[in-house]
Amino acid sequence: MPTPKIEYGILAPVLVVLAAAVLAVLVEAFVSRRYRYVVQTTLSFAAIALGLFTVILNKDVSGRFAEGSVAVDGVTIVLQGTILIFALLGLLLIAERGFQSFTAQASTLPGSADEQRALASGLQQTEVFPLTLFAVGGALLFPAANDLITLFVALEVLSLPLYLMAGLSQRRRLLSQEAGLKYFLLGAFSSAFFLFGSAFLYGYAGTTTFDGIKLQITTSPGNDLFLLVGLAMLTVGLLFKVSAAPFHSWTPDVYQGAPTPITAFMAAVTKVAAFGAFLRIFYTTIGGMVWTWRPIIIAISILTMAIGTIIAIAQKDVKRVLAYSAIAHSGFLLTGIVAFNKSGVGATLLYLLTYGFTTLGTFAIVTLVRDAGGEVTDLNRWSGLGKRSPLIAGIFTLFLLALAGIPLTSGFVGKFAIFSAAYESGNISVVIAGVLASAVAAFFYIRIVVLMYFNDPQEDGTSVVIPSPVTAITIGVCAVATLVLGVFPQPVINAVNSLAMFVAG
Amino acid sequence: MNSLTILGALPLLGSAALFLLPRANELLAKRVALGVSTVVAVAGLAIAMNFDRSVTGFQLVEKYSWIPAFGINFGLGVDGMALLLILLALILTPIVILACWNEAEGSRWSVKTFFALLLILETMMIGVFAATDIFLFYLFFEAMLIPVYFLIGGYGSGERAAAAVKFLLYSLFGGLLMLASIIGLYVVSRDQLGAPTFDVTELQKLSLNNQTEAFLFLGFFIAFAIKAPLWPFHTWLPDAAKAATPGTSVLLLGVLDKVGTYGMIRFCLTLFPDASKQFGPTIIVLSLISIFYGAFLAIWQSNGDIKRLISYTSISHFGFITLGIFAFTAQGQSGSILYMVNHGFSTAALFLIAGWMIARRNSSKVQDFGGLQRVTPVLAWTFFIAGLSSLALPGLSSFVSEFLVLVGTFVRYPLAAVIGTLGIILAALYILIPVQRSLHGPVAPGNENLKDLNLREKIAIAPVIALIIFFGFFPQILLNVINPGAQASISALNIGPSTGGDK
After folding, report:
1. Is A90:A264 a contact under the CB 8 Å cutoff?
2. Do A447 and B138 touch (CB under 8 A)?
3. Contact with chain B for residue A419, Cβ under 8 A
4. Measured in whole angstroms, how far is the alpha carbon of residue B57 from the centre of its chain?
5. How do the domains of chain B map onto residue ranges?
6. How high is the ipTM of this complex?
7. pLDDT digits (tens, 9 = 90+) for B367-409
8. Three-class SS state of B199
9. How far apart are alpha carbons B239 and A461 in whole angstroms?
10. Is A147 a domain residue?
11. Looking at chain B, which residue has its C-alpha nearest residue A451?
């Protein structure tokens, strides 16, 4: 048996980040506590930056590598680049030291004397950095996977650290741990579905590679039971990851319970990675079965939009509102899958890019609104924020308008691209549903704006803290990206469209 | 020639300057705002002098590529209708600033922000009427909501926050329906013309099948019907007008709502002629309902809130405007366009004077006034003239437009015209009853010491009253600008001369 051929250069983005993650674990073990934070942040940022650099080096690559189990093509390049940019911004938030977002020592029981001691001694753990790097590594591999096994491994490498990270919050630790556990249990179920589906597909095609499955579908058309059951289960696993209805119920709890920097990271990075895999599987592997899956995805898309927007109206916690908004956006993104045409690929990639910046920015601002006990996420206590700190409220309004898809913000460009792709494919029903859902969604975004500007501030100690440079940079970058992508999107659209091509075959 | 861009950018620069001014010096902010808007108005009139009214189609055209991937251009240009509506906005803005000199005091938000928002709104108004690219139009259409939203919510009275949100959501909902149609146009234009475009002239080359055309038409029409507002999409208007400051209401009803009727002519009729013809009779019925519904509610309010009353009269007037548009005759359309301009002035006068009355008396109820003729003669007379203009008295500006609308409707839909004429009688009721109650009769208790208009207020209202009278006697000046475009628009509809009516 010949030695497998591994193209290290082309896999470099994933390898660099995962190697850095392993190194970071060692740092955690051997570097003295005093230098750990500095070493960990330097290592993480360097790894992400190097990863980004290698992605750029790969920009003209298109092909299958590592014995066909990884596909690197224009779509992968765009997705990996997007993931790394968001990871960089997310890391900036995670590296923020001023806020005590993370528990001092995750192993202590909430409310115990140990916890008090850990807090009093000023411990600040740094395990979150290797965990983040592992998650990023998994996310980078997820949209590139060209084989069910690789896909599953990538999924787990992405998910397992996130389960832990969701439980690390310092404030309301029990809620955070509950969120982590919930995420883990439901995630384990979805992984089980995913794996079960993979087994069925293996039974159908006799191979786990996407190319083999595709070949089998094209050569022997007809609805094999194994194929249908396998695909259905695989799709459930993916829908869970993108938090589409009816597999969305973890989202609000996890978004609310997780430390806000983690929520920001998760909301942006996971969505990109999961939709990347979604695109590859639905556009290439099972593209031949579009007439079978399209009606189902249309129904799920509309249901997701409806649930996300309607339930968001009743929320009183800003992180839950944003969680339901994330669900609604998954619905909008699914219209890009429904489109199943050339424009659909570019539009979905563009939408992911615009949405990630905006959502990172919104959560970054959530970390700034605090009282003595930590973050204030109760919406009522946000009233009058526009009076107290006009700049932050103004930027938050910009992000909300972008989420609502108002013109001149990036959100509009993304929506326009994705809805026109769906319209082009003749599926006008999702476009109408999307437009109506946008109208409903506008209501709850604007409610927050009203609260900030037209209501009187409450005298309960809620205030906006002055952001430290790391958080300020994140917010600044996200705000500029939201505006520039809204006003002069042409260069980015060109870049994305010129790359948005799956490897042939 | 970048005259339109420069014209549009001036108020925006003015608002930027206002934001830089010290917060404490309110007087300076007001003077700067007045100065900027006056300069813009003069510049606008100067540009209008170069307008060649013998030519149909767009003039002062500018076009720059903006987002080629979506076929979006920064395209500006005006025809007669757009030019007049821009001028209406340019003239009303300094008047509103002067008339509402002290309106923003005591609000939650700073005075300079109020005037900065008005200037931003002026830019949006110029942009929305000057855009020849549908996407750009949509952009201004939506962006316009933001300053108005803050003007109502930040400076209004009573249920201002609720009214602002209601206004915003109604408009946004309509705007999103329009967006669905815009996406449709984008896809169809890419398929048929090879490259996507939003240029309004280019898009007329499309040939749409019936179903698509009806679908796209409805997206645009509902958005415009909400904006205009046409029954049954009107419920946001009375709330918004009541809660807003009088100055905001003037711009809202006087100019912004015209975007709806303007859009019907510019986009619905030209891009979707067959669908317009198909839905025309239904819209005629809706217009008639609007005329009567608005009139009856106005009469109902004639002992109630003055601002609500004026906004109901506007719903009735907008019914006439849409009636004229969908009669598909040149007279009807000319009348409607003229009506848009005249209604702008007469509503401006009514709202400004009503605002001064309310500020003096601290009440907006009609029954709290009475005998104003004796206490405050100038105020009473100007209100009287504005009211008469609103009921379309011959010799005042609205008469000609209402007459043209009804004549234009009569040749195609005689019955509708006859029914519409009855609306004029109701107009007499809803204007004369409140005028009689507030101006005549014995001086109501509490009104004895009301002050008459001061010099600033007189200067502000004088040009409006003068224009109402002037255009009443010389409507031809406006019609000369309007007619070529209206003729072209109707002949492009290819509907033939009036058939004498199936209705």
Report:
1. yes
2. no
3. yes
4. 22
5. 272-503
6. 0.78
7. 777 777 778 888 888 888 888 888 888 888 888 888 899 998 9
8. strand
9. 35
10. yes
11. B161
